[in-house]
Specification:
361 residues; mainly alpha; two-stranded parallel sheet; globular; two-stranded parallel ribbon; 14 helices
């Protein structure tokens, strides 16, 4: 069973109280909801086209005569898949697209199923563990690459980590591929052992659902193209893998520069499983924004270049991040607290690479 970590405030709750009140006042004054507006619904209809239209073109069998175009369509699907995950699924699984949770659940499950993933596992890893215990080794699985890389100074050193600045980017490309193949099964077993499954379900029920979803997923993206296309089966498998590699690389390059950078702190619980300090301040110390003025990037990555705002208000749609960031930054400065923000995306990637180099030993 997973033992919960408690954040013990020592008179430092004022920032969290103040920033939450100011953001709440903003929505009240504007008379708008924290969920998505027309901007998120534009994405709900546009971004899936980057995934589904290329796939439909592939299934016409028209492009099998040109391997360049054939693989280009799969790569475009990877860009669409990552965009759907970042710009749609992420908000949906946080309950932030619509006021109706049934809508959020439907959209979130649909997009994750198209990626070959499980909403149950994703919500436990991301919503529960990552957001509750950001950068806490042993709890936040986003900084636990299973001994292949070192994302925290508290993790043991291995000789091959000296090369992680080089090979990390290839491993990021395997992220959604792992979801679609074996990772969900391992996570389900682990979360069941830790007592993280909801009380209204069982591991056996979730395993049955998982198997059915995987069968449907592979039937759509592997079996159907093999049956319809006049091309060797291994080209289809390689194209499918290419799609996942592009999607995984994009996701890794968006999420890791927000938490595994030189400015990030990696606190450990004490013997009583307590972490000193207020939870809201913890988010400032473990999270960083990037490219706040790049509107095109921000649109595509679902506002996740504003990770500070997202971590402070995880159930708020990303369409509000840009405006809210001004409130959060001003409040942090008033309390003398850091507000880490890298001006460019390239700079954020360089910061992450620098941290990987630092953690190599």
């Amino acid at each position: 069973m997973l033992r919960a970590v408690k954040f013990i405030s020592k008179g430092d709750k004022d920032f969290g109280i103040t920033v939450r009140k100011r953001v709440s006042d903003y929505f009240k004054e504007k008379n708008i909801a924290r969920t998505g507006d027309y901007r998120i619904w534009v994405k709900v209809f546009v971004l899936p086209m980057l995934l589904l239209v290329p796939f439909a073109l592939i299934l016409t069998n028209f492009f099998t005569g040109s391997l360049f175009l054939f693989y280009a369509l799969w790569l475009l699907m990877g860009i669409g898949l990552a965009g759907c995950g970042l710009g749609i699924m992420h908000d949906a699984c946080h309950g932030a697209i619509s006021k109706k949770q049934s809508v959020n659940q439907f959209i979130g499950a649909l997009v994750l199923n198209l990626a070959g993933g499980s909403t149950l596992n994703w919500k436990i890893q991301h919503n529960v563990l990552h957001h509750s215990y950001t950068n806490i080794d042993g709890y936040d699985e986003d900084i636990d690459p299973s001994g292949i890389m070192r994302f925290s100074p508290h993790q043991p050193v291995k000789s091959y980590y000296r090369f992680q600045t080089v090979y990390a980017w290839f491993l990021y490309g395997l992220m959604t591929f792992e979801w679609a193949t074996f990772k969900d099964f391992l996570q389900l077993k682990r979360y069941n052992q830790k007592g993280l499954l909801a009380q209204n379900t069982t591991a056996d029920k979730e395993l049955a659902k998982l198997i059915i979803l995987k069968v449907l997923y592979y039937s759509l993206f592997i079996v159907l193209p093999i049956l319809l296309l006049d091309i060797a089966w291994w080209h289809i498998v390689l194209g499918w893998f290419s799609m996942h590699f592009v999607a995984g690389l994009i996701l890794g390059c968006v999420f890791q520069p927000a938490h595994v950078v030189p400015s990030s702190e990696f606190p450990l619980p004490d013997k009583d499983n307590h972490v000193a300090g207020d939870w809201a301040i913890h988010q400032l110390l473990t999270t960083a924004n990037f490219a706040p003025t790049n509107r095109i990037l921000s649109w595509y990555v679902g506002g996740l270049n504003y990770q500070i705002e997202h971590h402070l208000f995880p159930n708020m749609s990303h369409v509000h991040h840009r405006t809210i960031s001004k409130i959060v930054k001003r409040t942090a400065e008033e309390f003398g607290l850091p507000y880490y923000s890298q001006p460019t995306f390239v700079g954020a990637l360089a910061n992450h690479a620098s941290m990987l180099h630092k953690l190599r030993k």
